[in-house]
Write a structure and sequence with these properties.
The complex is a heterodimer of chains A (249) and B (264). Chain A is mostly helical and 249 residues long. Chain A is built from ten helices and no strands. Chain A has one domain. Chain B has a single domain, classed as 3-Layer(aba) Sandwich (Rossmann fold), CATH 3.40.50. Chain B is built from ten helices and nine strands. The chains are: A mainly alpha (249), B alpha/beta (264).
Amino acid sequence: MNAVYVLWIRQLKRYSRSRARIVGSLGQPLLFLVALGFGFGPIFRRAGAGNYLQFLAPGVIGMTILFSAVFSGIELIWDRQFGFLKETLVAPVPRMMIMIGRTCGGATVSLVQGLIVVAICYVAGFRAASFASWPFAFVFMALIAIMFTAFGTAIASVLSDFQAFQLVMNFLIMPLFFLSGALFPLNGVPRALQIVAAVNPFAYGVDGMRVAFGASASQFGAVMDLGVLGAITLLLLGVGGYLFSKIQL
Amino acid sequence: MIRVENLVKKYGDFTAVNDISFEVDQGEVFAFLGPNGAGKTTTIKMLTTLLKPTSGTVEVDGLDPSISHHEVRKRFGIVFQDPSLDDELTAYENLELHCILYKVPRKVRKERISKLLGLFELWDRRDDQVKQFSGGMKRRLEIARGLLHTPKILFLDEPTLGLDPQTRNHLWAHVQRLNREEQVTVFLTTHYMEEADRVAQRIAIIDHGKIVAQGTSEDLKTRTSTQTLEQAFLALTGSTIRNEIAGSIDQMRQMSRMWRGGRR
């Protein structure tokens, strides 16, 4: 248990010491919020769909957590290249514990990033429906964070070099984000796109957050959101843990 | 303590370790020598659960590292050939993390860390991030970390590479003390023959993945009718220079460049 704690703390320390990473990773959500939020706002309103910023903010918060979580998981490749991974792999600690410690650390870091973006959204004019929205939204944020950190860890356990990282980003993570309904409402889009979103776990995370914040009507239903996210998070933790335990150096 | 029989490791067509057998007794200091790329590190990886053998038997304290990984991991400590520190953490934090992973009791943790940091003259720099350290300091820290807990078997993979004579002396004195007082079995590799000659009770020489000779230093010298271990080593392995497949440091630099360039 101590091992989980120390690996968790390690990740937080690394994060807090890397100011460039904190600031750098906020650039993209800020751009999305400003360019899309304010750019498409008037059209959205004229189409009778309400306040676009209110709609977009949960998507941008989700995006921040998604990218940051996958990145944290994939940091494993980094540790492999720089050797630190060896130190943890030969330690008399079950690998599952090491994987859990890493995942908790990565998830916490991406959750913190997400909360910073929440604050930015708030400054931009985003408002939650009620005070009770926050804990509910937090649960969804945490689930997205854990799920995608485990996903990143699983991927990094099989990949051993950075070239593949771009591949993962462009062919897995970008589609997960753009085809999730984070940027546009899913009702009314072509059937094919709706089906793609329905098998995209990230879509349930964003939908869940929207429900929590009272930002828009739910696409899948809050219970469904929670169930799908919970189940896939457990699955990915299992798969990630298994692949991690099979790493050879 | 360690028993290896007909051990083979293949990477595709390349055979890194080719049918080697040897035994290391409890409480022994055993040196595993060979030119670059001979298969030393690959063998250590198989002994320390990091790599699965292609075929053959490995036993560490009577256990198979590829099956009872967890039990085997409880029994050894290791100083790796290449870096394995966390650069973003401080020297102290690196050692503390190691103590926690290896369940060094909280009470003795502080005392041991300060003792080893003192021994390797890093105490003044304990709160600096490792990325600010010179190569030699990182190496010293790495060794200090490897000695924090007292394992049954200690693997030292070229521990003295890049160390000054002072630190080398401290290291071997400490290792010999562990061996004498705590009966720690030591398995080491080095390119400095006089070190092996001084500390090891038995020596095996590996070349091109095969063990070409094993025995005491005296045995090897008599067999090759040479005066020093270095001469014996050269007589057994020839004098051509070997290339490793890819220097791990170079590979890492390349990766690091790509990473910085390729990030978003």
